């Protein structure tokens, strides 16, 4: 895959256009389109409360061995990891039996600054903390935790379908299309809104966050490819990040609205920035990362509450264009060990750390994606404020393939994949 060369002579000193009245009106229209009507919000807030009560009070008698992924079929549910049954069968745990227990916590997030995309569907978020009793001491190794998490989700899905027959409840892939760590979505036929239910263990129940540093191995290749035994101690940075997201994402999503509350211009600018990335197919820059980036700029006084929308948006774009990826940025503590930071920089081309310093919120961004974003943001800066450029900047779709000279796809057979792993 060859990415077309971005312009080498991007003029960052272009004349800054003032915000015209027409551009301001376009921004206001976009902001109105982003908000669901009050009736829809009230409706789904009430549904979310009922769903939360169901999750807290349900009693399910289903009991199985955690390695048994087929038993849910009698309830009309397919275990999300059924395709990985062979790998799950090779895992171990000190708690081998799965049985229902009430969740440690169920939290409804009704106000979220990460819901920034223009959409006709209003989304409520519910965060479910798994009960400690279903987890063993070393369940963070291999697919034990994902398998038990999915068992718990199967229980919740059965309960939701039984208690809320007028709604559709089903599994949906997690962030970045993650099928190992899916979520549950509850919706209805009106498509006016939905509820997204996230599941994760508490840090105290699974392992300390330091256990998921990028230079630590938590999944053994031999459990999937028995003939490959010499790769078991290799670091698994991407898998570690996927586990950490299920544990640490709720705290991050709760933090963002608190930081952005009563800062209307900043939230509006953030929503427009999110539109800009989504219209270009740069899904790696998800709503949560962009919101975190904006909060970081607030902390550094790069953007402030008193700035107008266009100034905030321009400063936000400039900050990404000038993002120095040779250093780690984010919310990590000042005393975070240098070895941990070095491990992040070695494993990921872009690093934005959460409060613990172990979850890299930007772990899905490639170097090429950032370069493409920087080049296009540089060109977009000169058009900000121009009403004639609004649709091109924020509404029109920019096709993925237009950014490449050539595109090819390579499909490997299972045998070829094994050979590739063995020789890499």
TrEMBL record:
The keyword RNA-binding applies. One of its GO terms (biological process) is rRNA processing. InterPro entries: NOL6/Upt22 (IPR005554), Nrap_D1 (IPR035082), Nrap_D2 (IPR035367). Keywords: Chromosome, Nucleus, RNA-binding. One of its GO terms (molecular function) is RNA binding. Pfam families: Nrap, Nrap_D2. Residues 126-248, 267-396 form the Nrap protein domain. One of its GO terms (cellular component) is CURI complex. It is found in: Chromosome; Nucleus, Nucleolus. Its main location: nucleus. Belongs to the NRAP family. Part of the small subunit (SSU) processome, first precursor of the small eukaryotic ribosomal subunit. During the assembly of the SSU processome in the nucleolus, many ribosome biogenesis factors, an RNA chaperone and ribosomal proteins associate with the nascent pre-rRNA and work in concert to generate RNA folding, modifications, rearrangements and cleavage as well as targeted degradation of pre-ribosomal RNA by the RNA exosome. Part of the small subunit (SSU) processome, composed of more than 70 proteins and the RNA chaperone small nucleolar RNA (snoRNA) U3. PANTHER family: NUCLEOLAR PROTEIN 6 (PTHR17972:SF0), NUCLEOLAR RNA-ASSOCIATED PROTEIN (PTHR17972). This is Nucleolar protein 6. It comes from Ancylostoma caninum.
């Amino acid at each position: 895959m060859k990415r077309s060369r971005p312009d080498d002579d991007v003029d960052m000193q272009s004349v800054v256009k003032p915000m015209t009245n027409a551009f301001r009106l376009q921004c206001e229209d976009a902001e109105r389109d982003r908000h669901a009507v009050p009736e829809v919000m009230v409706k789904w807030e009430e549904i979310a409360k009922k769903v939360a009560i169901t999750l807290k009070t349900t009693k399910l008698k289903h009991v199985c061995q955690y390695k048994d992924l087929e038993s849910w079929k009698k309830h009309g549910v397919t275990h999300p990891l059924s395709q990985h049954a062979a790998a799950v069968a090779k895992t171990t745990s000190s708690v081998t039996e799965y049985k229902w227990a009430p969740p440690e916590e169920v939290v409804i997030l009704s106000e979220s600054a990460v819901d920034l995309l223009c959409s006709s569907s209003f989304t409520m978020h519910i965060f479910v903390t798994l009960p400690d009793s279903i987890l063993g001491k070393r369940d963070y190794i291999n697919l034990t935790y994902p398998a038990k998490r999915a068992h718990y989700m199967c229980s919740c899905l059965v309960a939701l379908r039984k208690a809320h027959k007028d709604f559709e409840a089903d599994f949906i892939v997690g962030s970045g299309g993650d099928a190992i760590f899916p979520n549950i979505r509850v919706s209805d036929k009106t498509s006016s809104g939905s509820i997204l239910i996230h599941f994760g263990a508490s840090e105290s129940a699974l392992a300390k966050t330091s256990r998921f540093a990028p230079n630590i191995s938590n999944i053994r290749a031999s459990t999937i490819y028995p003939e490959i035994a010499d790769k078991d101690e290799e670091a698994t940075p991407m898998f570690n990040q996927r586990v950490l997201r299920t544990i640490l994402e709720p705290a991050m999503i709760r933090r963002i609205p608190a930081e952005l509350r009563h800062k209307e211009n900043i939230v509006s600018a953030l929503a427009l920035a999110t539109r800009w990335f989504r219209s270009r197919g740069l899904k790696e820059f998800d709503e949560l990362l962009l919101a975190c980036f904006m909060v970081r700029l607030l902390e550094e006084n790069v953007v402030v509450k008193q700035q107008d929308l266009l100034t905030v948006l321009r400063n936000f774009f400039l900050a990404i264009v000038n993002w120095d990826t040779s250093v780690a940025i984010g919310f990590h503590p000042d005393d975070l060990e240098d070895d941990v930071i070095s491990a992040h920089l070695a494993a990921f081309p872009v690093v934005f750390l959460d409060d613990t310093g172990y979850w890299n919120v930007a772990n899905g961004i490639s170097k090429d994606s950032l370069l493409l974003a920087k080049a296009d943001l540089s060109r977009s800066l000169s058009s900000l404020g121009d009403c004639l450029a609004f649709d091109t900047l924020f509404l029109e779709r920019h096709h993925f393939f237009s950014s490449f000279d050539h595109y090819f796809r390579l499909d490997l057979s299972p045998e070829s994949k094994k050979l590739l792993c063995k020789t890499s």
